[in-house]
Write a structure and sequence with these properties.
The chain has 86 residues and is mostly helical. The longest helix has 10 residues. α1 packs across α4. The model has no long low-confidence stretch (mean pLDDT 88).
Length: 86
């Protein structure tokens, strides 16, 4: 979630990278969904891209998506819906 490449810190403001990242995820959502459980979650278990990607959740929060919409997690379909609302 604290991915320095996307976030803002005392050292650097990389917020300009968030939207292109989110756009790229949207453009590849179907392929990412087809990958299945090949990613490692923050708990160290196999998970889908959507379950394992804390950086995406943080980027969505920073782009204005309300936290209550991310509490249950993200799926490819819910991400598409959130993306269209940005």
């Amino acid at each position: 979630p604290k991915d320095g490449w996307l976030g803002t810190s005392f050292i650097a403001d990389n917020g300009h990278r968030r939207r292109p990242y989110i756009d790229a995820v949207f453009g590849n959502a179907r392929a990412l969904d087809r990958e299945g459980t090949r990613y490692i979650s923050q708990g160290g278990r196999l998970a889908t891209f959507w379950e394992a990607n804390g950086a995406l959740k943080a980027a969505l929060l920073d782009e204005g998506v309300p936290a209550d919409k991310l509490v249950r997690g993200i799926t490819a379909d819910s991400f598409r819906s959130l993306y269209r609302g940005l």
